[in-house]
Amino acid sequence: VSEAPRQMSHMTWPEVRAAVERGAGVILPLGSTEQHGLHLPLACDAICAADLALAVAEQTDCVVAPPIVYGYRSRPMSGGGQGFVGTTSISGQTLILTVRDVVAEFLRHGFRRIVLLNWHNENSNFMYEGAHLALEGRPGDEAKILVIESPFERLSDATMEELFAGDFPGWATEHAAIMETSVMLHLHPDLVHFDRAVDDRVARATPYEVLPVQPEFVTESGSLWKATRASAEKGERAWKEIVGPLVEAVLTELPVQAGA
Ligand SMILES: [Zn+2]
């Protein structure tokens, strides 16, 4: 894997052309502008997605495109809902068409190894639809798109125990809580106000949603679980386990071409 520049936004167009010509891939990070409790910045999802993309890009000869920093509507039981000042979301239709248009541009540049890497739960399905639409009507095109809607499913048992001590509520509920706070403490401690972190939970958790959103499904802080249990050490440990399988997935589905 070459030492070529990775951040597309920092590259000149001939550098991007050179990346295309050597067979490099492109990773599009997807995040959100969404409240993340009293202690994390609105860009948490976009930062995690972009940093993850960079970590994967270095080991798979990809460049990282500028992230999509607005996400699909925040939902109460996975992101706190739309009631918080600062949470700035787009509709499903807008997200679908944004992904479609951006991927179509990557194809026009000549990229044939394309990765969509998401950190905001609610973007799922819409990003898949955008990727589908971008490829529609291009039969015979050898381009492949890897759609990663959830960057991880389950970490090793030892790490799950280290992070949650047998008290894991599910990833949707883990919003602005142990995992995201730990990862941000590891990556960007300067952006975390850890002294403001609180443990929180919704008054009622149900397997269904109610519209309009009912107050008992929304937490006061915006965190949905026990943010005070986070640490930089937990974040570092989890991060390694997240990056490894993603590198593997990209190399399996979109192998680096010989001579790259
Ligand atoms: Zn998040």
Could you please describe the fold and organization of this structure?
The protein has about 260 residues and is an alpha/beta fold. It has eight helices and six strands; from the N terminus they run αβαββαβαβαβααα. Helix 2 packs across helix 8 and helix 4 packs parallel to helix 5. The radius of gyration is 19 Å and the shape is globular. The model has no long low-confidence stretch (mean pLDDT about 95). The structure holds zinc ion. The site of zinc ion has 5 residues, from helix 2.
Features:
single chain, 260 residues, alpha/beta, four-stranded parallel sheet, two-stranded parallel sheet, 8 helices, 6 strands, 38% helix, 9% strand, binds zinc ion
Radius of gyration equals 19 Å
Approximate helicity band:
25-40%
Small-molecule binders:
zinc ion
Q: Uncertain spans, ≥5 residues at pLDDT below 50?
A: none
User: What topology, given as strand order, has the largest sheet?
Assistant: 2-1-5-6
Shape: globular
Beta-strand level of the residues, as a percent range? 5-15%
Order of helices and strands: HEHEEHEHEHEHHH
- Indicate the structural class: alpha/beta
Number of strands: 6
What is the CA-CA span between the terminal residues?
Answer: 7 Å
Number of separate helices? 8
Please give a quick description of this structure.
The protein has helices at 13-21, 44-60, 76-79, 92-109, 126-135, 157-164, 178-187, 232-253; strands at residues 25-30, 62-64, 71-72, 89-90, 113-118, 144-148.
